[in-house]
Amino acid sequence: MPKLRVRKHELICPREVVLDVKEGDNLCEVLLQNEINIEHACEMSRACTTCHVILRSGYNSIEAPEEDEEDLLDRAWGLEAESRLSCQVTVGNEDLEIEIPKYTLNHARE
Ligand code: FES
Questions:
Q1: pTM greater than 0.90
Q2: CATH architecture of 3-99
Q3: Which residues in 62-74 are b (16+ Cβ under 10 Å) and which e?
């Protein structure tokens, strides 16, 4: 069973945590189910960037982003090469380590 390590975030995750996850889990849902209240302004409909996370390990174990996601990520605060929208990430069969960026830009569309 893969593990998900969530690095410390001042507001959202005041202590680093390690969670058991299952292959096929949605990353954003796992965070919310574990009281890591990451923003998800568009309710996971791939229309904002508020659920942005940076994969510090395990990036290559998840499916590549679709073009729509990449276009949105271009507007995310603190974009890095391993950035993803957590609501679009399905956990693979390897451990993941994520960092939640310090800030978000709320790009939710009406
Ligand atoms: S919650 Fe809006 S794109 Fe993930």
A1: yes
A2: Roll (3.10)
A3: beebeeebeebbe
